[in-house]
């Protein structure tokens, strides 16, 4: 009997261990600046990803052959530096985490791609994937493309093309000022904006170009003074985080009478910073915004605001939700969390928005791992005006659509020569 009892206990123990193993979470490493100058942007991303994971877990988690497993977002604070991001990447790999998420810096993203390429070559049994939600420097899915990297945001040239089409159509503008953060993404936006404007409106005069240190300028009044003195009627910038908010505050204080064509002017304090002066003057481009005006969009936004009701937490992106949903679907199709299998399941994958109530759509282009999705150019208006049902961050100001670009029209050629395992 003692042998039978021992065998019974052993079998029960094995069954319990297997059951426990099946419930182990699938960990996603968020490597982001969660302290320092851009902590607000990092925390905003964290909220988006936590909410996306919660939505998956609420329906039972990720369905795998061994049982359903929940998602877990694991925070790694890069403190806004490339060096610390690489240290956090090593820590995540040492912990056996198979999926890395990052986006708030194209310079960091480029370094992570290089580090991941080397890691996956050295350690084929511990390969990982990099899911990028907002590092938009175009080379990351062109010359520097990688089988292990997938970008879920439209890259800078795709976003900029939509913005510059709107600017070029505005015949009240004859003088433009270009300003950006002095790193790969900011440099690219300034250079490419000049090129696109020359193609669309040869009569437009670029009256100034400026690159400033990223995350270190506390007073933008000297920069705004130059813009004002140049007589610019429009400003094009890829600035994000506090660098955008502080610049817009300075523009308001200086009484700068110019339109701002931005990538990120609709969040993280920018609408409240510029206030009434921004009505009809601040434009932004994104894959979605709260005033898209469809029932699916309204329901999605209402659910997010219920989860995060504080006005300062009002920062949600459809692409980050789509990223998590597409990852989950790829893991389920692959029947595994193996990096190669999941990557192949992601290549060419279509997202119809079904798990988000039909909110968003797009396709992950297999050739370069660039997500192709619609874009909206929107302008700042007073909340309650036509097309502006919702405000941003309790500011009393929201954004309404001025141009919708279907997914197929955002697609651009690529220069990726991908090496596949």
Explain the overall architecture:
By secondary structure, this protein is α/β, with parallel strands linked by helices. It folds into two domains: 26-154 and 315-372, Response regulator (Rossmann fold, 3-Layer(aba) Sandwich); 157-286 and 374-410, Response regulator (Rossmann fold). It contains 13 helices and 17 strands. The protein has a seven-stranded mixed beta sheet, sandwiched between helices. A hairpin with a 4-residue loop joins strand 14 and strand 15.
List keywords for this structure.
single chain, Rossmann fold, 5-stranded parallel β-sheet, 13 helices, alpha/beta, 2 domains, disordered N terminus, 7-stranded mixed β-sheet
- Tell me, briefly, the overall form: globular
CATH topology of the largest domain: Rossmann fold
- Any guess at the CATH architecture of the largest domain? 3-Layer(aba) Sandwich
Number of strands: 17
Name the CATH superfamily classification of the largest domain: Response regulator
The strand line-up of the biggest sheet is 9-8-10-11-12-16-17
The residue-averaged pLDDT reads: 92
Residue runs with pLDDT of under 50 for 5 or more positions: 1-22
Number of separate helices: 13
Please state roughly what percent of the residues sit in beta strands, choosing from under 5%, 5-15%, 15-25%, 25-35%, 35-45% or over 45%: 15-25%
User: What is the CATH first-level class name of the largest domain?
Assistant: Alpha Beta
Q: Termini separation (Å)? A: 54 Å
Question: How many domains in all?
Answer: 2
Order of secondary-structure elements: HEHEEEHEHEEHEHEHEHEHEHHHEEEEEH
Keywords: Signal
Domain Leucine-binding protein: 25-384
Signal peptide: 1-22
Pfam family, one: Peripla_BP_6
């Amino acid at each position: 009997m003692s042998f039978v009892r021992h065998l019974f206990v052993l079998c029960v123990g094995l069954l319990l261990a297997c059951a426990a193993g099946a419930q182990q979470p699938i960990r996603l490493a968020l490597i982001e600046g969660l302290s320092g100058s851009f902590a607000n942007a990092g925390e905003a991303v964290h909220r988006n990803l936590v909410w996306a994971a919660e939505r998956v877990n609420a329906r039972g988690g990720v369905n795998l052959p061994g049982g359903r497993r929940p998602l877990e977002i694991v925070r790694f604070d890069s403190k806004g530096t490339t060096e610390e991001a690489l240290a956090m990447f090593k820590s995540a790999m040492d912990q056996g985490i198979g999926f890395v998420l990052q986006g708030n810096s194209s310079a960091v993203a480029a370094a992570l791609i290089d580090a991941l390429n080397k890691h996956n070559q050295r350690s084929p049994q511990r390969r990982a994937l990099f899911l990028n939600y907002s590092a938009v420097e175009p080379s990351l899915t062109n010359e520097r493309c990688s089988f292990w990297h997938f970008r879920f945001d439209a890259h800078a040239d795709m976003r900029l093309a939509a913005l510059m089409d709107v600017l070029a159509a505005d015949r009240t503008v004859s003088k433009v000022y270009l300003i950006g953060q002095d790193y790969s993404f900011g440099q690219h936006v300034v250079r490419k904006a000049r090129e696109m404007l020359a193609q669309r409106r040869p009569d437009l005069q670029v009256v100034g170009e400026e690159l400033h240190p990223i995350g270190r300028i506390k007073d933008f009044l000297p920069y705004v003074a130059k813009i004002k003195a140049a007589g610019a009627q429009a400003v094009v910038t890829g600035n994000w985080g506090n660098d955008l908010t502080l610049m817009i505050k300075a523009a308001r204080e200086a009484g700068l009478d110019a339109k701002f064509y931005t990538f990120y002017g609709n969040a993280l304090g920018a609408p409240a910073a510029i206030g009434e002066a921004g009505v009809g003057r601040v434009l932004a481009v994104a894959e979605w915004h709260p005033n898209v005006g469809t029932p699916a969009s309204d329901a999605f936004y209402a659910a997010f605001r219920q989860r995060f009701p504080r006005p300062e937490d009002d920062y949600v992106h459809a692409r980050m939700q789509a990223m998590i949903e597409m990852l989950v679907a790829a893991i389920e199709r692959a029947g595994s969390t193996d990096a190669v299998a999941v990557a192949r399941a992601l290549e060419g994958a279509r997202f119809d928005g079904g798990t988000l109530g039909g909110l968003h759509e797009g396709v992950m282009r297999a050739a370069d791992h660039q997500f192709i999705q619609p874009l909206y150019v929107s302008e700042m208006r007073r909340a309650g005006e036509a097309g502006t049902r919702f405000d941003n961050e309790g500011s009393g100001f929201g954004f309404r659509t001025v141009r919708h670009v279907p997914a197929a029209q955002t697609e651009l050629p690529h220069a990726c020569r991908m090496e596949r395992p």
